[in-house]
């Protein structure tokens, strides 16, 4: 029986592990936090279908009740050494592992919105991130003002993505549609609230995304203004004044909003940097792990026997992460078959 | 010469200020022609517009300014439209642009008859 070590227990790690154990391998998931599930633990409901993140996560986890799957929580891999075609792996816990293949599924981290100081995150009370909004939804903490429901809420796209100043040139892919989804959720909770989304480009690349954007305009009166916020300033009543150019009319624009939501992007982060470094996998200038080929080998890292799955290779949705994880399992199986043939 | 002619304060700011939003005409139109909500500002209508190809007239921009509550000058500008309906043929979102224009004209006419 072959043994595979999966680094990271988010959507990508859980799904890769489940598929590999279904094909008869022994799998160990090494997760640094105290629970499986990664970011999905914090999300409320998911685009594009508003299914509950918890339900999707429960389903993913229900597959892992297989005899040959073990999970090491609060553990990190500290070294990976190749000897005789196998990997000797040391962890931060007492476990030492021997593996035939390694899958890195260490995911992403959220852009720290404090780095865009001009938007006032953690300075002004009523400026929050999209991730904060998900957590609030889960805790039933609505956006309020002392008078009740907010009159006006604005979303800011591309916070920490596509921005030289943040050091991130790439697009985080999921935040445009997250903004649309969250705007609709807010509108359902308080139909009287006016909602504006400030964007540079709207990237509705996935199945059902464009339709959801149209529904947001048609059914929920959500308004989209093409222009990047230059600044936000708190007023005495804690509302926030924002400035942008309405680029399509060529005029500067200002408005007061009761709440400002920053659609934060994805970064490779320290988790993926650590995992890539112990595995000796090459990273791109963006920080995400480089794959061997952009078309055919999106699950192969620069090291033989070390595979990659999910958003540690670049921003991706849950839908795409599950697909990527399944294809990682296929690649690992393929690798094992080739190894066996070469021994015959 | 009076000092006020020099001051910046004498210049009306160009900023679209949502605190001064005049949404009366807009809400009337959105109610009667809800397809207007889904405009993408793609500019297809302006590109094909019969009037806009002859004189300075930008139907996309006019509609956008209406959506921002900016109705000053709308009354005269909208007169340039020939009601040919070409704009509706290209609109990717299927908006009944001519009806939006008709509603603007009607509302302008109504406010005139009230004034009289
Ligand atoms: C605000 C927001 C809302 C979103 N909403 C949606 C949505 O509605 N629908 C949708 O399809 N997608 C959504 N996404 C995208 C979704 O979050 C990702 O697709 C998904 O989380 C990717 O899963 P992953 O397993 O690759 O990474 P992660 O969820 O980041 O999981 C990675 C796991 O690896 C662990 N780890 C990291 N480094 C190490 C290490 N060195 N050693 C051990 N363990 C490690 C982490 O602790 C974590 O548990 C959203 C994203 C954002 C930012
Ligand atoms: S998905 Fe949209 S909000 Fe996110 S970085 Fe790309 S363009 Fe910006
Ligand atoms: S109906 Fe008016 S706005 Fe539309 S194409 Fe004709 S002239 Fe232009
Ligand atoms: S063609 Fe339609 S969607 Fe495009 S700007 Fe004109 S009205 Fe809007």
What does this structure look like?
The complex is a heterodimer of chains A (344) and B (116). With 344 residues, chain A is α/β, with parallel strands linked by helices. Chain A folds into 2 domains: 3-108 and 268-343, FAD/NAD(P)-binding domain; 113-266, FAD/NAD(P)-binding domain, CATH 3.50.50.60. Chain A has 7 helices and 20 strands. In chain A, strands 5-2-1-9-20 form a 5-stranded parallel β-sheet, with helices on both faces. In chain A, helix 1 packs parallel to helix 7 (318-343) and helix 4 (175-189) packs parallel to helix 5. Chain A starts with a strand and ends with a helix. The model of chain A has no long low-confidence stretch (mean pLDDT 96). Chain B has 116 residues and is mainly α. Chain B has a domain at 39-115. In chain B, 44% of the residues lie in helices and 2% in strands. Chain B is built from 6 helices and 1 strand. The chains are: A alpha/beta (344), B mainly alpha (116). The complex binds flavin-adenine dinucleotide and iron/sulfur cluster (3 copies).
| Biggest chain-to-chain interface with counts | A-B, 16 and 18 residues
CATH superfamily of the largest domain in chain A: FAD/NAD(P)-binding domain
Q: Could you give a short account of the major beta sheet of chain A? A: 5 strands, parallel
Structure annotation, total helices of chain B: 6
Tag the structure with descriptive keywords.
heterodimer; A: 344 residues; alpha/beta; FAD/NAD(P)-binding domain; 2 domains; five-stranded parallel sheet; 7 helices; elongated; B: 116 residues; mainly alpha; 6 helices; 44% helix; binds flavin-adenine dinucleotide; binds iron/sulfur cluster
Tell me the layout of helices and strands.
The complex is a heterodimer of chains A (344) and B (116).
Chain A: E1 3-7, H1 11-22, E2 26-30, E3 45-46, E4 51-52, H2 53-62, E5 69-72, E6 77-83, E7 86-91, E8 96-99, E9 101-104, E10 109-110, E11 127-129, H3 130-139, E12 152-159, H4 175-189, E13 194-199, H5 209-218, E14 223-226, E15 231-234, E16 240-246, E17 251-257, E18 259-264, E19 266-267, H6 269-279, E20 306-308, H7 318-343
Parallel strand pairs in A: 1-2, 1-9, 2-5, 9-20, 11-18, 12-13, 12-18, 13-14
Antiparallel strand pairs in A: 3-4, 6-7, 7-8, 10-19, 15-16, 16-17
Chain B: E1 16-17, H1 24-32, H2 44-48, H3 59-67, H4 74-77, H5 86-90, H6 97-115
The complex binds flavin-adenine dinucleotide and iron/sulfur cluster (3 copies).
